[in-house]
Structure formats: C-alpha cells, structure tokens
Design brief:
It contains 10 helices and 11 strands. It has 284 residues and is α/β, with parallel strands linked by helices. The chain has 2 domains: 64 residues, Helicase, Ruva Protein, domain 3; 194 residues, Rossmann fold, CATH 3.40.50. α5 packs parallel to α6. It is globular and about 70 Å long. The model has no long low-confidence stretch (mean pLDDT 96).
Length: 284
C-alpha cells in the first residue's frame, strides 16, 4: 500500500533525479491535482492510502513532468490574482511579473465605462482580470490576438469567470496587432513576445512548451513591441494610457521608441526582483 507521504517522498526523489527544480513542491502540486484537493490538505492526510487508479494517474503526471512538461499544463489550471484560469499549450503560461503589472493597474482610478484593449491577450488573464475588477463600472474589454487557438482559450476562461464578469462587455478579436481592432481606448495593455531568436535557443525545456509565436518578438526580440508602440498613439483616447511588459535590457530602446511616437509621461517600473520590467505612458 502506498500512502500520500510515501508517494510524496518517492516522487520527490524521482523528479530530483530528472533535474526538476523544487521537486518536493512539484510533487505536492501533482498529488493535489490527482486528489482534487488543496496542497495544504495533503499534510493532514499523509497516512491516506492511494487507490491504484490514482497512483496510475500520478505516475503518468510524474513521467511527463520529468520530461519537462510544465506543471501548469499538467494541472490544467493556473491561479492569477485570485482567479483560476485554464492553462494549456495554446497560450503562454502566465508569469508572476504579469500579475505585478495588472496589480499596478488595479490600483489606478478608472473612469466609468472605460474601454480597455488587451493586446496579445493569450489566455486572457490580463483583460479578464481587469474586466472582473471593473465589471460593476460597465467596462468594455477587447481581447486581441493573432492566434485563434489562444482566443479560444481566452473565451473558455471568460466562461469560467462568467459570474464575476457580469456587467462587463467582452469582445474577442483575431488579427495582427491593431489590424482588426476598431476605435480608441482608455487603456491599452500588452504582454507581447519579447525574446529574440537567439534567446529562444537558450530557454528552459518548460518554456519550450509555450507557443513560439507567444515568445519570439523578432530577430532582436523588440520588433513587435516597437510596432505596437508606434500604433498606440492613434488608438488612445485623450488621457489614455499604455502599459506593457518587456524583457531584460530592453527598457531604454522602448523608452526611446515611445518618446519618438509622441507618448508622454513615460515611466519604467521594476518588478519584485528589482529588474526593469514595465513601461507606462500616456496619450500624446
């Protein structure tokens, strides 16, 4: 008989052997996924015996995790600002830094019936989190992406949050940047691809499970973001703002691009690790 504690200890060793970082934490999450419980619940059930069917599923998840499949894909969900979102290979796995960016935006004062664009929305975590927070104010959020698969995932996540989104107007648009987007916005928010072609060759095996089109922003990494900043001024309402995430060492170039396009009040914010990570700017 295998108890939860047995599985945790043996599984941790197995994942460590296969180079998985934070192996014990990973095993806790895998066990919680198989058992359909919270990770903290494991500690009061260490002596519980696992049925063979659950052991079989656990072994399969452990094998796939050892092969580099991201934990979030195995669990099928990810938590983002207190909401649970579906997560799979159709879109980028949400990063903690993106949570930080949305957290900054949630602290701002918003006009009634604000119009927000989530550019390159992926799974929709940015736009849907903002929509849930501002639903009572009649917010309209447009979620745009080049990937039809990512938009499908974003729609599924909207369905997961349907009760929290009551009062918000959501629109999903497929196209290259602003090509299929109409109108002006009070805020345009983006976490666009910012890796270079060279960067892609050096990412972890887990990151390789993200769609390449969600990772690579061009030969240098910044080309897509430069295009985005160039088109933003014409799409902002008076007093509107741009907020975007970027990669290491890209802040000065993007600041110069934003300035050259007429954007004002440009600021670079650091993430919790102290790295320059976010650009905020106002309409010309």
């Amino acid at each position: 008989m295998t108890t939860i504690l047995d599985a945790l200890q043996k599984g941790t060793g197995y994942l460590e052997k296969h180079g998985v970082e934070s192996a014990r934490l990973n095993m806790q999450h895998l066990l919680a996924t198989v058992l359909g419980c919270r990770r903290m619940d494991l500690y009061v059930n260490f002596d519980k015996v696992l049925e063979e069917a659950r052991l079989e599923r656990l072994r399969d998840l452990m094998k796939r995790r050892a092969q580099g499949v991201p934990l979030q894909h195995l669990a099928g969900t990810v938590e983002f600002l207190g909401h649970e979102f579906s997560c799979d290979e159709r879109a980028l796995i949400p990063r903690p830094e993106t949570e930080e960016l949305v957290g900054v935006l949630l602290k701002r004062a918003w006009v009634e019936k604000a119009r927000i664009l989530d550019m390159g929305c992926g799974s929709g975590v940015i736009g849907l989190s903002l929509a849930a927070h501002l639903a009572a104010q009649g917010v309209e959020v447009v979620l745009a992406d080049l990937s039809r698969l990512a938009l499908d995932l974003a729609r599924e996540n909207a369905a997961r949050l349907v009760q929290k989104l009551e009062g918000a107007d959501l629109r999903f648009v497929e196209g290259d940047l602003f090509a299929a987007v109409s109108g002006e916005f009070d805020a345009i928010v983006a976490n666009l691809p910012y890796l270079s072609v060279q960067d892609l060759a050096e990412v972890s095996r887990e990151v390789r499970h993200d769609p390449e089109m969600a990772l690579v922003g061009g030969e240098r990494g910044t080309e897509l973001m430069e295009r985005f900043l160039g088109e933003c001024p014409a799409r902002l309402r008076p007093g509107g703002m741009v907020a975007m995430e970027f990669g290491a060492g890209q802040e000065e170039l993007l600041r110069e691009v934003a300035l050259s396009r007429g954007l004002r009040d440009i600021s670079i914010l650091r993430d919790l690790q102290g790295m320059p990570r976010f650009l905020l700017a106002s309409a010309p």
